[in-house]
Design goal:
single chain, alpha/beta, 8 strands, binds pyridoxal-5'-phosphate
Length: 241
């Protein structure tokens, strides 16, 4: 059977709602971020017409092209106001030579992991847009190939982000090791929650724990996630990463 984006979206929203209720958390306390890497502007248009206004992209050039195409489509369909409401999250690894484009075309960055990109993103953020919302990425399973910092390094980076006028420290993000068992995932998410609670107690601007994807959103929500990043469950399998 072929399910439309609307059907898949309803299913994802139900999963989030059920997990939120069984965790005895407030309805609406977990935000859905639609991960739209590799997806067409047409697919994003359909998604936004069903009320999803937050999109996560991993590749700068792809994202900028898509933003242009989507903006054009929205103008043609009388949806220019809705386009203005979109919130763009950059969730991929941040390359230093891409910080200007990110600072100018995104509202959030989830992959903050070193001083160099902190100073660049802040300096390059247009003041007219207000501060760029930042999550520090934690390499929670200490994987060699993955971006992010160790738990021990969070405080130092948080101080650096907090000191920048162009940035707003919002929280933490993680991508657990692939093929983790449910128990391992739960443990990972609990460790993230403890680090998040600690950070939140020190910085009033912190309100976002970005964890949970298509396969593990329930475990993430039962362990305190406030934002789940969902690609496959909304749009189907990706042909490329
Ligand atoms: C691709 C991606 C996702 C979405 O993963 P799915 O399993 O397709 O839901 C979430 N977060 C990041 C950082 C990603 O790169």
């Amino acid at each position: 059977m072929i399910f439309s984006i609307a059907d898949k979206l309803e299913n994802v929203r139900e999963r989030i709602q059920k997990a939120t209720i069984s965790a005895k958390r407030l309805p609406g306390s977990v935000q859905l971020l639609a991960v739209s890497k590799t997806r067409s502007a047409e697919e994003l248009l359909q998604t936004m017409q069903h009320g999803v206004l937050a999109f996560g992209e991993n590749y700068v050039n792809e994202a900028l092209e898509k933003q242009r195409a989507l903006k054009q489509m929205c103008h043609e369909k009388g949806l220019a106001d809705l386009y203005q409401q979109l919130v763009w999250h950059f969730i991929g690894p941040v390359q230093a030579n891409k910080t200007r484009a990110i600072a100018e075309h995104f509202d959030w960055v989830h992959g903050i992991d070193r001083s160099k990109i902190i100073t660049r993103l802040s300096a390059q953020r247009p003041t007219t847009l207000g501060p760029l919302n930042c999550c520090i990425q934690v390499n929670i399973d200490a994987e060699e190939t993955k971006s992010g910092v160790s738990l021990e390094a969070i405080d130092t980076l948080a101080e650096e982000v907090n000191a920048q006028a162009g940035l707003n420290l919002r929280g933490l993000m993680c991508i657990p090791a692939a093929h983790s068992s449910d128990d391992e995932l739960a443990q990972t998410f609990k460790t993230m929650l403890a680090a998040y609670d600690h950070l939140k107690s020190r910085y009033p601007s912190v309100d976002t724990l970005s964890m949970g994807m298509s396969g593990d959103l329930e475990i993430a929500i039962s362990n305190g996630s406030t934002l789940v990043r969902i690609g496959t469950a909304l749009f189907g399998e990706r042909s490329t990463s």
